[in-house]
Amino acid sequence: MTPAPEPQAAPRRSDIPRVGDKQDKAESVQRMFASIAPRYDLLNRVLSLGVDKSWRRAAAREALLLSPTTLLDVATGTGDFALELKRRSPETQVTASDFVPQMLDIGRRKAQARHLEISFEEGDALKLPYPDASFESLTCAFGFRNFADYQRGLAEFWRVLTPGGRLVILEFPPPAEGVFGRVFRFYFRQVLPRIGALISGNAGAYTYLPESVLAFPDPARLARMMHATGFRTRVQLLTFGIAAVHVGTKLA
Ligand SMILES: C[S@@+](CC[C@H](N)C(=O)[O-])C[C@H]1O[C@@H](n2cnc3c(N)ncnc32)[C@H](O)[C@@H]1O
Fold first, then answer.
1. Is 40 inside a domain boundary?
2. Which of 18, 24, 29 to mutate to test the pocket of ligand 1 (most atoms within 8 A of CB)?
3. What is the distance between the alpha carbons of residues 123 and 14, in angstroms, rounded to a whole number?
4. Which of 95, 118, 226, 233 would suit a FRET pair with 156, their CA atoms being 20 to 30 Å apart?
5. Is residue 181 part of a domain?
6. Which of 76, 78, 105 to mutate to test the pocket of ligand 1 (most atoms within 8 A of CB)?
7. Rg (the chain; Cα; Å)
8. pLDDT number for residue 7
9. Residues 233, 246: contact at Cβ < 8 Å?
């Protein structure tokens, strides 16, 4: 049995990665995910009340629409999205990449247990270790927000995709204005960090989560950034706009 995490003191600001674009945060993001890796899956289910599975299903449908033969799941973490993609499309060759080995190890074990053949490979999303035009589809679920440079990430996605290839980014946009947005902000800022700290033992990680979402570009701005990189874009909001699926097609 996994021992319960030690109770922690309030996080120091220096332990929490910076939020937003063009930030020097790669190492602190790596440290944070390495520390929460063993509890990451449980926290996902609890904090999203299980709805994250339906978001991944919606994004997977988009990523597999053109029956790709090769697919790269960037910032795969513990591999839940890669597993969903491989389960739905066994004939697609799925590569799952992340820069935190502790997250990849968990993904690898889950794939083995489910007899799903996925190649888990270490790699930085901002410097992907693959030649140009290597994949027909590229996915990134809840990882993009953590990148130190969004434009660089998009440029790397564009580079490794084949012409006409499909990009699917699943992310949390900042909550919209209005009553639902206010309720959600309250949950995000006051409730989620407490539950996250309790289960993960890392209070900083679950302070960072809401702050990074609030600092993230809204769907229209992210769509413009994708378009400027060379993608035809479309966005679908899920569950009252809590999550968004951005679909891009690489223009040849
Ligand atoms: C919130 S988790 C998402 C994991 C998974 N995609 C999911 O849907 O559960 C974010 C992941 O992004 C990874 N990540 C963040 N920045 C990265 C980068 N520059 N290169 C590779 N992985 C990165 C982290 O290591 C972490 O595993």
1. yes
2. 29
3. 25
4. 118
5. no
6. 76
7. 17
8. 37
9. yes
| Contact indicator for 143, 77 with CB cutoff of 8 Å | yes
Q: What is the pLDDT of residue 1?
A: 34
pLDDT, greater one: 63 or 210: 63
Q: What is the 3-state secondary structure (H, E, C) of 215-234?
A: CCCCHHHHHHHHHHHCEEEE
Residue 79 CA to ligand 1 center (angstroms) comes to 10
Q: Is residue 189 part of a domain?
A: no
* Counted domains in the chain: 1
Name the nearest CA neighbour of 42 among 85, 101, 2: 2
How confident is the model at residue 9, as a pLDDT?
40
**Regarding predicted confidence, which is higher, 186 or 13?**
186
Q: Is residue 182 part of a domain?
A: no
Query: What is the residue range of 122's domain?
Result: 18-174+217-250
How many angstroms separate the CA atoms of 35 and 29, rounded? 10
CB 118 within 8 A of CB 86: yes
pLDDT at 198 over 90: no
Question: How high is the pLDDT of residue 137?
Answer: 98
Q: Is 52 annotated to bind ligand?
A: no
Q: Which stretches does DSSP call E strand in 127-195?
A: 135-141, 161-171
The whole-number average pLDDT for the span 203-230 is 90
CATH code, domain carrying 96: 3.40.50.150
Range with the lowest mean pLDDT among 73-77, 94-98, 129-133, 240-244?
240-244
Q: What's the rounded Cα separation, in Å, for the pair 137 and 167?
A: 6
Supply the pLDDT for residue 11.
Answer: 45
